[in-house]
Amino acid sequence: MEEQKAQHSNRLTIWICIGIIAAIIFAAVGPNYAKHFSLGGDIFLMLLKMLVVPLVISSVMSGILGMGDIRKLGLPGVTAVGYYLTTTLMAVVLGVILVNIVSPGVRMKGEKEDFKTIMQNSEKNKTAKNIVTLRKELAKSAGLSEEEVGKILGDLKMPPAKNIGVILKNTVTMLFTDNLFKSAVDMKLLPLIVFSIVFAGMLTTMGERVENITRLIEQTNHALMEFVMLLMKGAPLGIFCLVTSRFGEAIAEGDFMQMLSQLGWYIFTVALGLGLHGLVTLPLIYWLFTRKNPYRYLVHMAQAMLTAVSTSSSSATLPVTMECAIENAGVSKKSVDFVLPLGATINMDGTALYEAVAAIFIAQALGYDLTMGNQIVIVMTATLAAIGAAGIPEAGLFTMAIVLNAVGLPLEAIGLIISVDWFLDRLRTTVNVFGDAVGAAVVEKAMPAEI
Length: 451
What we know:
By secondary structure, this protein is an all-alpha fold. The protein has helices at residues 2-29, 31-34, 38-67, 74-102, 104-107, 110-124, 129-142, 146-153, 163-173, 180-185, 189-203, 211-232, 235-252, 256-262, 264-290, 294-300, 302-311, 314-328, 333-346, 349-366, 372-387, 395-406, 418-444.
């Protein structure tokens, strides 16, 4: 049975790879036709997102119930949070080092003058015109309404010194809600996770009186995982539609090759940082804690990472990540159920690295001379802002505004990297997902032995 599952998983991974390659080729050959495949991609993405909230609630509760006693949550919880903060900080520091070595902003030629012009216009024009333009561009890029973008951005014209305090306050308040149903509708997972941990922890203390409820939670979790496996049978087609429509749209607009040439060094720096973190740092951490081959683990998580490439959403990819970690990689279910939902919400290594690189790149292009103190502020702000980033496409763009404001860079400069963000978002989401998966394997070592 296990061998059959492995063969099925390998075949599915191969078909997903074929789907992505075919999607890019089709988009290059017929971009005007390719962009019309967005309907199929949207349906696949909606089906994945449909599972996120019920799966998060049932899996977290199931993981806590599997421990048998809420008091056993201490060590795994501390290990998980320690892992998230450590790897995110390592990613940010790596990004800062690389962007200072490569200096992509300094290498820019013709576009550098455009950057300076935008900054000068921003200084001269003190009206809300530039922010309105930014909101429109962000709304178009992320597929949200301008009102939604306004709510996400909030009041970013605060004094830069107050940013870190505001981020910390917002991060704490994100843990709680006055309406669980509203949080579920808005896919705000942190308060749902907190409620699930507390509620399941309470159930572990009530013994036989809640046997039916605990059995229902566990059976619901198993049923949802079966639903995920069923949905993955159509993943190659759904991923083909997602990828070909997005690439087709970019190529049809005629700016794809232009953006690569104009922002090539910036793209290279971000991709290099993500590659080093995903292929060197995270595998090294995995090996240190498990003494197993990290690249074999990487192959086991291939379906989840390929899904992340296509969806650009760690939250939407969560059902697939959990299925791969349990069925393919053999990570214990109680570790996966506890760690991955939390990781998909607050563990954003790729996003943190991207924000640090992008902020310093913009400063270089604008001719700003960042001091060591400024760069330390970027490291701290990017780390905290990434934790607060939503698991939605292009979420990093919104938290990027916080990082820029922290060192006094114009918010309007975000518009200069929007054209390539949809592409880089796929890369950083993939690193985010693999970071979550490595976290599940690491925290497994801190889980209580008995079930």
